[in-house]
Amino acid sequence: MPSLGLLSRNSATWLGPADWLHRRAAQQPQWPDPAELLAVTEYLSELPALTTPQEITHLHSQLVKVQAGEAFLLQGGDCAELLGTDAVQGASGKQRLLAEMADRIRTGLGLDVVTVGRLAGQFAKPRSEPTEVVDGVTLPVFRGLMVNGPEPVASERQPDPYRLLSCYYTAKHVLQELRGRLWTSHEALILEYERAFRRLDAASGEHYLLSTHLPWIGERTRQIGGAHVAFLAAVANPLQVKVGPNATPDDIVELCEILDPQRIPGRLTLISRMGAAAVSERLPTIVAAIHDRGHSVIWICDPMHGNTVKTANGRKTRYLSTVHDELAAFFTVMATQRQHAGGVHLEMTCGEVTECVGGIGVSTEADLEQNFESLCDPRLNEEQALSTADLIAKSADRPVPIQTRGN
Ligand code: PEP
Ligand code: CO
Q1: Which ligand gives the minimal distance to the CA of 271?
Q2: 242 secondary structure, DSSP code
Q3: Is the CB of 218 under 6 A from ligand 1?
Q4: Least confident of 179-183, 195-199, 316-320
Q5: Measured from the CB, is residue 305 less than 6 Å from ligand 1?
Q6: pTM for the complete prediction?
Q7: For range 225-237, the mean pLDDT
Q8: CATH number at residue 61
Q9: I want to staple 276 with a disulfide (CB 3.0 to 4.6 A). Which of 110, 303, 323, 326 is the partner?
Q10: Ligand 1 center to residue 305 CA distance, Å?
Q11: 373 among the known binding-site residues?
Q12: Domain tally for the chain?
């Protein structure tokens, strides 16, 4: 089980009373020195925010079109982002690749495409185990560059709060590089970072999360009653939640009620990540339950996270054919449920990495050894990402808006 930790409460004064602060937060690092952490997060909270309420409202208006079946959401980027100049250079490459994919999807579907990067903040990872054994030594797991380093030595694996500052400055430079050409998204995982960017918008009287445009709650932190759900329920951004194969229809209906009690169009996107083998069986009852309870959400598909396998060498990989199978099954489920297949969420990068099996140059697991660079999960390379865009462009049925669903 992932460790649960109570967030420190001593800085509640600068955030105002916040219900989420008293809830248990899954997947938080064991920061070694609370005073040091507090100094860093207070400093962050004084720095200029990374996004603006106006940008977020603009994205929200685009998501309203996705929900109405008039647009398609294309979201993608690294599993775990790099820091510094590597991240800045990587971001412009991803922006170019996402733009090319969006063109193909737009042409194929005859729909507008809303393009969102997994970047300028995707620095932290939830993990299934808190420790791992490397060469007989038990070490804390790597939790993304926001928390610790990937090298398997104890000093690197110690959580370091100054990394939060490196993430902020990297995100700032990535956003400058993108110059407004791409919306940003990341998993709002490390609440000590996110809380520093929860800011009051005087114009609307609402709190916004200004570390990103589109935060999501991961599969491992979407506990009803947990801190992540309560924290995001209290910001005005559009939100996303990952929905894995063990989710029950009741759980997801309850999440809709907590995160979108006012049933605001475009507010909530559910990201189905069931795995190719489970999606046809698991997804329909959840989609139907939400619809029957009068909630209207955007449904998109993450065909990556339910399809991770380990090679004989112990590498994590994914087969492009399985990724495509899940996408095809998702489109079929959505058509059967008479709902818009609203988009796709991918782990992908530009260039010729060899992290997923399939397509030119990566026909077997042995080929993965050539150029496996990911800090965490395997990403589609440029050619695999473009072939996925082509599949989407061809295979999505014409969307039927939710209002016209029969029965
Ligand atoms: C991710 O998107 O990198 C991730 C960890 O996803 P999930 O929460 O769906 O497992
Ligand atoms: Co991942």
Answers
A1: 1
A2: E
A3: yes
A4: 179-183
A5: yes
A6: 0.94
A7: 96
A8: 3.20.20.70
A9: 326
A10: 6
A11: no
A12: 1
Task: Report pLDDT digits (tens) over 298-314.
Answer: 999 999 999 999 999 88
Taking CA atoms only, the protein residue closest to ligand 1 atom 2 is 79
Cβ contacts of 155 within 8 Å, gap of 6 or more: none
Overall average pLDDT of the 34-62 stretch: 97
Q: Residue 30 domain-assigned?
A: no
> Is 340 among the domain residues?
yes
Residue 158 domain-assigned (yes or no) = no
φ/ψ (deg, to 5) at 357: -90, 130
Residue 14 has pLDDT above 70, yes or no: no
Question: Position of tokens 């990067």?
Answer: 117
* Nearest atom (ligand 1) to Cα of 220: 8
Q: DSSP for 13-56?
A: HHH---GGGGSEEET----S-HHHHHHHHHHHHHSPPSS-HHHH
- Find out whether 131 and 149 touch, Cβ atoms under 8 Å: no
Other Cβ atoms within 10 Å of 346 Cβ, number: 25
pLDDT given at position 396: 58
Span from the CA of 77 to the centroid of ligand 2 (angstroms): 10
Q: Which residue has the tokens 């940003």?
A: 184
Q: For all residues of the chain together, what is the average pLDDT?
A: 93
pLDDT tens across 170-183, in order? Answer: 999 999 999 889 99
Whether residue 118 is annotated as binding a ligand: the answer is yes
Q: Is the CB of 160 under 6 A from ligand 1?
A: no
The stretch 124-144 carries a mean pLDDT of 96
Range of the domain at 193: 55-129+180-395
Residue 221 belongs to a domain: yes
Cα 8 to ligand 2 centre (Å): 28
Most ligand 1 atoms within 8 A of CB, residue of 302, 326, 346, 376 to mutate: 302
* Ligand-binding site membership of 79 (annotated): yes
Kindly state if the Cβ of 2 falls inside 6 Å of ligand 1. Answer: no
Confidence of residue 194 (pLDDT cuts 50, 70, 90): very high
**305 annotated binding-site participant:** yes
Residue 18's pLDDT band (boundaries 50, 70, 90)?
A: low
